[in-house]
Amino acid sequence: MGGLAFIVMLLCLILGIPLLVSLGLATMLPGLLNPRFVAGNINFVIRNMVNALDNTPILAIPLFILAGDIMTRGKISERLFDFFVYFLGKVRAGMLMATIATAMFYGAISGSGVATTAAVGSMAIPFLSSLGYDKTFVAGMIVTAGGLGVIIPPSIPFVTYGVVTGTSIGDLFIGGILPGIVIGLSLMAYAYIHARVKGEDRGRILSKYNELRARGFFKVLKDSFWALLSPIIVLGGIYTGVVTPTEAAVVSVFYSFLACLVVYRTLKLSDVPKVLVNSVRAYTPIVMLLSLAIVFGRVLALLQVPQDVRDFIVNNFGGSPALFLFGLNVLFLIIGMFMDIGPVIAILAPMLLPAAVALGIDPVHLGIIMSVNLAVGMATPPFGVNLFVASPLIEKPVMDVGKRAIPFIVAFIVALFLITYVPELSLYLVRRG
User: Considering the entire predicted model, what is its pTM?
Assistant: First the structure.
């Protein structure tokens, strides 16, 4: 019956029925088909949706969203970009690399791929276009680099995975650092190849670079210091055990307000209500989908679906973790093109975790692999959500941006398979902690 519920959900999505409705129908289907199965009735669903949210770690999600919104409104990405351009701007593809580095660091502030794409894109696309880069190419690069927002901690998908599987969110955050760096370096490598093959307007680039260098290192550092310090405080607090991930989210919000309201003064008190409203609007669909997805996962667990999936995988993959992980990557790369990252993790992670553990795969490693796969989906045409964020910024069709993103997506996937088959990239810092 659990398999039937899953199939019904997929059919509803194919027919264009909204995800929330599709998920609700699939959750209640077992109860409708078998009245004695009380876990599928409406009372059970509503009660467990509320109970699912009565969970302290989930509080980290809206708080990290709020911190990201504050930083976006406060134009923090511009200060980060200037810092990285100071060091990278002179080398070939240095401006492109500085943009990717900004996305990496901004992801460590916002925890969101969409927020990273919007903040970095709105700042970098006009600037790089003025240097002679094709704006569609730049948008394609940024939608892919925006996926780093859900890999570089703090990551909202990591919080979701930790909540639904019981895995330490702190370990997931620490485990995501090296994979995020590997992905960033992979994207930079392609940017370098592109610049070497296609060429750059070195005259305009060096002119802009020299303008920035003329300000002096200490002026650039002073302007960007508080932005650079934010992820260090959050991750350092978690890594040393001073704060939990949820407490780190509170610190992140307070620090964001301090930096933007008091230090940089790029945010006014009159802007705060707008920021709060935007954060609530962003979190409302997430919380509805997440709570319902958790209930759906509980219904599947009562139907013994995770155990059935574990037995099927162990029996049919010949006990090979490598083969299982390859199949997992293919599955999630496809799903990531069509579904939002949060519900996918909330639904599938509890189903696949028992099989992964049976094959000797660490839960932290599995969570990072899932998130990286789905981050690729955020930039993959035709439905990648980051594409819809970047397309209006350049007033070009979504598919035009998607086509230019494909080489960067390939570089992302190369990093994905490296992360998949070298588990130490995900686990080294966790084991040292």
Answer: 0.88
